[in-house]
Predict the structure.
Amino acid sequence: MTKVLDDLNLPAIHPGEILREEYLLPLNMSAGALARRLQVPRTRIERIVAEETGITTDTALRLARFFRTTPDFWMNMQVGYELAVARAEKADVIAAIEPLEAA
């Protein structure tokens, strides 16, 4: 699956976009309202939905509880995003590494 996504050259999707578009907008809920329900600073959720910062393990636990998902769902999105960004930024450096040859 990863190879197919790489071949399609799809942009990395920030988990904040998913939170905003798939959860907050359909619920007509503001970032501030979600922050209150999660008992976190308003700026934490605002930065996530603005795609300025990522989802921490603490936030993943809270989002999972509130939205009846799993922390893994949120963390996997975050890790997938970070890998996609790093893959694009470091493509030349990574390509220059010679793989270990089997003996």
Observations:
- The radius of gyration is 17 Å.
